[in-house]
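User: Need the bound-state model for adenosine monophosphate:
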Amino acid sequence: MDTAAPSIAIPFDNSYARLPQGFSARISPAQVRAPRLIHVNDELARFLYIDPEALHSQEGAEVFAGNRIADGSEPLAMAYAGHQFGNFVPQLGDGRACLLGEVVAEDGKRYDVQLKGSGPTPFSRRGDGRAALGPVLREYLVSEAMHRLGVPTTRALAAVLTGEAVMREEMIPGAILTRVASSHLRVGTFEYFAAREDTASVRTLTEYAISRHYPAAAEISKRYRALLEGVVQRQAALVAQWMGLGFIHGVMNTDNTSISGETIDYGPCAFMEAYHSATVFSASDRQGRYAYANQPGIAVWNLSRLGETLLPLMAEEEGSPEAALAAAYEVLNGFGPLYEAAYLRVFRAKLGLAQEQDEDAALVKDLLEAMAAGRADFTLTFRHLSEDDGSGAGEQFSNRATFDAWHCRWLARLAEEGSLQGERNAAMQRTNPVYIPRNHLVQEVIDAAILRQDFAPFERLLGVLASPFDEKPGQHRFAARARAEQRVFQTFCGT
Ligand code: AMP
Ligand code: MG
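Assistant: Bound-state model below.
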């Protein structure tokens, strides 16, 4: 026990625990053998009004391992259902996660603080309730990188080793991630009650979601429709941001689709290197359902499942089931235009285009096609376009002549806009990162941690990813694409 450290106070202010019984199961996280801190996110702790110094202690390790329950915490496992790869599972729920409680942070908003990997719950089914070190480090790195890249996302507050081994393909060290989210309400949470035809609970959940995430909807007479609209808008914007970073979520099941519009559940996710619209990494996604280019289509499919759960409530405000269905279709049909507009906004910024023109979509599409044909690295192509006149991007293309032709077109467009290179470069460099958590870099970190108990590579990569838009001297290896022998083709859920 580190007696010098102040004791840990987390200003819990719980609301989900006040919802009716069927919404969750009260649980106690499992006691683990030898909790040891891997990392604490001091900046995020401060944001949550938690003294970071107190966390860097054996008590901190105990709290983030679930061995010690901080005052005010009401540990619970949330109930939810979900469509997994298109198939409905009426009961999933937190099988290895434990919501410790909620904190109202510096920005005045409410955040969930959740342990992931903290032992079995009534929702564990055949799972062991545990998390392995590899996926914990991956989620930590990728979620924090996404945050720094400006993408709405859950975050990582801490990672600990449990001192116990978990059985996966082999025995690997067990770990627990402390995740912070705007909430853990998912499309699957709505599906859980809707599938039981428990409209009263859908209503309770809907009111809760509105007050927590879409308070403006409460002021509108058609509040249920407004909720659906709000989620559609945020998911359209979110997926457009993913596309702009070459990010592939990998498991866009409805239980991994957040009502708040954050990226949640980093399993077999990855950033593309060589651009191809059909890229899939997840080993379990054999049909390519969640391929890069399918993500907007899958998002609207998931949102349609949310819409279905709201139909009984929408029927009240629309006057009939038929009118509710028509209203839901109208909202869901809005996804396409919202997404297209968000996508173009993202890519216009990536290309430094200040004006909106009809040819913008074609300019983007033709670049992407040239990248696919030329095996160009997604991230480096856009970054090099952000430097000088952008001709350095040509090195990415095996089909240099195709790039050169596109490049001439782009320069002509920029000239027409009267774009100034210096200003344009600066703006583009704020949206086109140098550093992303490339697969081989994440894998290197995981290998060092598992094989050598060496967490220095984790710390280094986390540090580089903390400012992804600023090129750092001597850190070229973190910007480079994988060499042939480093390439990672598949990622695993690790569940
Ligand atoms: P995920 O793939 O992490 O989104 O999880 C899908 C579902 O499986 C959720 O209900 C999880 O709680 C559950 N699950 C995943 N891994 C485990 C595990 N090791 N033990 C128990 N439940 C798990
Ligand atoms: Mg999940």
